[in-house]
Amino acid sequence: MSTDLRQRLAELVNGATTGTIGVGDALGGGSLRAMGLDSLGALRLIDAIDLEYGVEIDLGTEPGLDTLDAIARMVAARR
Question: Which residue range or ranges hold the Carrier domain (predicted)?
């Protein structure tokens, strides 16, 4: 997976959470929910990914989509 994709997704996470999750924190790995991704932030992130990449994901129902790397793998596979 590309570094550019990870970086841009981390920026989208930061925007979707209105700064609650910093870019560096998202890039560092770990559970986005544990870092503060709530349901509103998840909806914003889903919309941002769809707008940016044309990829529809569902953070609530697709298993294992709780880390930046898991999301990046999903986006890379679907675009």
Answer: 1-79
Q: In angstroms, rounded to a whole number, what is the distance separating the alpha carbons of residues 40 and 37?
A: 8
The three-state secondary structure class of 55 is coil
**Alpha carbon of 76 to those of 5, 19, 36, 46: distances in Å?**
8, 24, 24, 15
Q: Are 26 and 35 in contact (CB under 8 A)?
A: yes
- Residue 37 pLDDT > 80: yes
Instruction: Please report the domains of the chain, with CATH numbers, ordered by start residue.
Output: 3-78 (1.10.1200.10)
Residue from 32, 39, 30, 28 nearest 13 by CA: 32
